[in-house]
Specification:
single chain, alpha+beta, TATA-Binding Protein, 3 helices, 27% helix
């Protein structure tokens, strides 16, 4: 079973829905009102948190792939200047939470396309 986690940072109040934003990003369209991310820092944090992850390319697209030691769990990260998307396969909650924390570090709350919910940061 696979599922997606998607992260972006809003620069301004937006009138379009999170679902519309997601669909635009998924179609490789820039979205007005979103900030560009320090994507190299985001990717560095992901590869640091998941040391056996590998950055790969097929010439037209680039991604990061991570596979657990038992090869049961994995994810694939793709990105643009405005977002990063994680396609998870049987990923345990602990690893999902690590990815969510990376999003939070860069002020990018999680959008869950399976439920259509964009989460907000909790106040401590």
């Amino acid at each position: 079973m696979s599922y997606e986690l998607v992260f972006w940072r809003q620069a301004t109040m937006m009138t379009q829905s999170s679902k519309t934003t997601y669909e635009s990003l998924k179609s490789d369209h820039a979205v007005e009102g979103l900030s560009d991310l320090p994507i190299d820092e985001v990717l560095s944090d992901i590869t640091s948190m998941f040391p056996n992850s590998q950055r790969e390319s097929d010439g037209s697209e680039e991604w990061i792939r991570w596979l657990s030691a038992d090869e049961e769990d994995s994810f694939r990260v793709t990105w643009s200047s405005q977002h990063f998307r994680v396609e998870c396969h049987h990923l345990p909650l602990e690893q999902v939470n690590c990815l969510v924390k990376i999003g939070e570090k860069f002020s990018c709350p999680l959008y869950d396309p399976q439920t259509g919910e964009r989460f907000r940061f909790s106040r401590s």
